[in-house]
Design a protein that fits this description.
One of its GO terms (molecular function) is aromatic-L-amino-acid decarboxylase activity. This is Glutamate decarboxylase. Keywords: Decarboxylase, Lyase, Pyridoxal phosphate. By secondary structure, the chain is α/β, with parallel strands linked by helices. The chain folds into three domains: 40 residues, no CATH class; 260 residues, 3-Layer(aba) Sandwich (Aspartate Aminotransferase, domain 2), CATH 3.40.640; 113 residues, Aspartate Aminotransferase, domain 1, CATH 3.90.1150.160. Helix content is 34%, strand content 15%. The strands form four sheets. A seven-stranded mixed beta sheet has the order 3-9-8-7-6-4-5, with helices on both faces. Strands 12-13-15-14 form a four-stranded antiparallel beta sheet. Helix 5 links the parallel strand 4 and strand 5. Helix 9 packs across helix 11.
Length: 473
């Protein structure tokens, strides 16, 4: 939704001569009356986009900002292919299916070749599909038992990405948030079980919290729900939001049980355009078996004379990102992904250590789960804030978000660094140099100059939830 408040809407664009042409005037917010030369239109758009930040210096976003030239070339070649048209672009559909099978194997599905899954526009759509399947599965069970289906709820930590609040709002499910408390910044088994009842459609466990980069204890949550079923008969499935971690843990933490090895995990989502290493936007949603994805949610289309099931909120979208995902899987293989992800973790953990050694900062996490870490200004330092640090770094082009934690820990304000493929040790050193450069200036302040209101809107998943919006929880 684009809303502009007195931002020069009465001034047209005045364009300097391009290639000796006369200057022209172009309306900002209305369709021009006539045409212009393509290179002139290009220059107008190009010049305005120079005001954007440098994507490679954006340490707020989890989204990939670098790709190999060959991947970009394939994306250019497939930009016009509509992913929804399985019959017209059967080989693109085939590559999508191969990616699903590869992910199913990576996540220890019992029979990867029979796995149920699909590509999406990103992990948010994939998460919503996972939530919809949980709701529909719960409704079927309740109706079979002649019980009401009008009060579904879903249990999750308050640290979940904002898409889960949207899911609850859009699809009329009560979100039951487990608040943060003390040094507990994400969902724990005991707190999850406390909020479950006969109306709980599922528990969301996050493998890589956007607030601090930490893994939630999926196996322990599943075990607690196993115990709950043994005691009460309540059978509550788990959906793993692996937007980031589902493309980190299989390569760097192979012994960590969080995926389909756990019978209670019904579905998993991930983001191909995060640590899947694809440019925006592609995500993936997978279910452990056909029982986990009710068939009445699936639409069936003819595909090469056979049946192609589809499940999506989105419709038309380019096939380019799916093709790029398959290229990355083919190009890197398991060992290549392991090497790329290990490098990102090495950069994150080293950068976190170096920042901690500067003196004014204290680590909340150190980048040893997903390659993301958060840090705060030490207690006793009251003459500058994390928001001052973020603004100072922005002067050199670095986008490092500063934000406060949610309810019960709103006293905790942090900076967060997301290390992605392409953010090298050399770039980390440059960030450290700039951080060292701004600290003497900040030390001269008598008091903080900036607060949460100056933070901007780039927390990328660490937004505050509104539990009251949906009911008593």
């Amino acid at each position: 939704m684009a809303v502009h408040h007195n931002r020069g809407q009465n001034r047209d664009l005045e364009i300097n001569p391009v290639f000796s042409r006369e200057p022209v005037r172009v309306p900002r917010y209305a369709l021009p009356r006539g045409e212009m030369e393509p290179d002139t239109a290009y220059q107008v758009v190009h010049d305005e986009l120079m005001l954007d930040g440098n994507a490679r210096q954006n340490l707020a976003t989890f989204v990939s900002t670098w790709a190999e030239p060959e991947a970009r070339r394939l994306m250019d070649e497939c930009a016009e292919k509509n992913m929804i048209d399985k019959d017209e672009y059967p080989q693109t559909a085939e590559l999508e299916a191969r990616c699903v099978h590869m992910l199913a194997g990576l996540w220890h599905a019992e029979n990867p070749r029979q796995a149920i899954g699909c590509s999406t526009t990103g992990s948010s759509e994939a998460a919503m599909l996972g939530g919809l399947a949980l709701k529909r599965r719960w409704q079927h069970r309740r109706r079979a038992e002649n019980k009401p289906t009008d009060r579904p709820n879903i249990v999750m930590g308050i640290n979940v990405q904002i898409c889960w609040e949207k899911f609850a709002d859009y699809f009329e499910v009560e979100p039951r948030y487990v608040p943060m408390d003390g040094d507990r910044y994400h969902l724990t088994p005991d707190k999850a079980v406390e909020l479950c009842d006969e109306n709980t459609i599922g528990v969301v466990a996050v493998l890589g919290s956007t607030f601090d980069g930490s893994y939630e204890p999926v196996a322990d949550i599943a075990a607690a729900l196993d115990d709950l079923q043994a005691r009460t008969g309540l059978d509550v499935p788990v959906h793993v939001d692996g937007a980031s971690g589902a493309m980190i843990a299989p390569f760097l933490d192979p012994d960590l049980e969080w995926d389909f090895r756990l019978p209670r995990v019904a579905s998993i989502n991930t983001s191909g355009h995060k640590y899947g290493l694809v440019m925006p936007g592609v995500g993936w949603a997978l279910w452990r078996d056909k029982d986990a994805l009710p068939d009445d949610l699936v639409f069936h289309v003819n595909y090469l004379g056979g049946d192609m099931p589809t499940f999506a909120l989105n419709f038309s979208r380019p096939g380019a990102q799916v093709v790029a995902q398959y290229y990355n899987f083919l190009r890197l293989g398991f060992e290549g992904y392991r090497r790329v992800q290990q490098t990102a973790r090495d950069v994150a953990t080293r950068l976190a250590r170096e920042i901690a050694r500067l003196g004014p900062f204290e680590l909340i996490t150190d980048g040893s789960d997903i390659p993301v870490f958060a840090f705060r200004v030490r207690e006793g330092i009251d003459h500058f804030s994390v928001f001052d640090v973020s603004a100072a770094l922005r002067e050199r082009g670095w986008l490092v978000p500063a934000y406060t934690f949610p309810k019960n820990r709103t006293d905790l304000a942090v900076l967060r660094v997301v290390v992605r493929n392409g953010f090298s040790h050399d770039l980390a050193d440059l960030l450290l140099e700039d951080l060292r450069r701004v600290l003497p200036r900040l030390d001269k302040q008598g008091e903080p100059h900036r607060d949460e209101d100056d933070a901007g809107g780039f927390a990328h998943g660490a937004e505050t939830k509104n539990p009251r919006r949906h009911g008593r929880h």
